[in-house]
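Budget justification aside, the reviewers requested a transparent look at the raw inputs and outputs of the sequence design task funded under Objective 1. We therefore reproduce one unedited record. The lines immediately below are the structure tokens for a 149-residue chain.
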């Protein structure tokens, strides 16, 4: 089993879409094992997006992420990183496949609702950045034999 970090960005919270988005992951079979709402500190936003520091959109991206509260979660499941990215869709909602979260709920790259880790290695690092070990509530669900053979 693998874990991935998901951030429901300020636009998802402000637009009242957090429930719809979490439901999509739950329906797919991914399991929420940590979940919290917080106002992000600038330093955390800067560290999370450090890889984009030299990009022209970086300062706007940091302002966006700290502009209003976010909901952050850890999802667990087989290939969680890959399948969550697939359900999220392409970075630019205008290019995302129909049926993905970004295509179905968003229009612009700078307001694309959601973050998902892009590799298992980055997921481990991002989960450690956003959560303490005590924030996780690992559990087995009765549905698991019906999700995994
Ligand atoms: P990802 O979220 O699909 O992994 P990244 O390339 O890692 O996409 O970019 C991180 C975030 O930076 C995007 O989700 C989006 O919020 C923002 N971003 C990326 N490119 C642009 C851009 O050209 N203009 C504005 N914001 C951008
Ligand atoms: Mg990314």
């Amino acid at each position: 089993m693998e874990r991935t970090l998901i951030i429901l960005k300020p636009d998802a919270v402000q637009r009242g879409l957090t429930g719809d988005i979490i439901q999509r992951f739950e329906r797919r079979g991914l399991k929420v094992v940590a979940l919290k709402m917080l106002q992000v500190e600038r330093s955390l936003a800067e560290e999370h997006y450090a890889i984009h520091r030299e990009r022209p959109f970086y300062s706007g991206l940091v302002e966006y992420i700290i502009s209003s509260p976010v909901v952050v979660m850890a999802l667990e499941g087989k290939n969680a990183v890959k399948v969550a990215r697939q359900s999220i869709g392409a970075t630019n909602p205008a290019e995302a496949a129909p049926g993905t979260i970004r295509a179905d709920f968003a229009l612009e790259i700078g307001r694309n609702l959601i973050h998902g880790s892009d590799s298992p290695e980055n997921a481990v690092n991002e989960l450690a950045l956003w959560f303490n070990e005590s924030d996780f509530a690992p559990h087995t669900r009765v549905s698991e034999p019906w999700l995994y053979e």
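The pocket of magnesium ion (ligand 2) is lined by residues 118 (CB under 6 Å). The radius of gyration is 15 Å. Computational costs for records of this kind are itemized in the attached budget.
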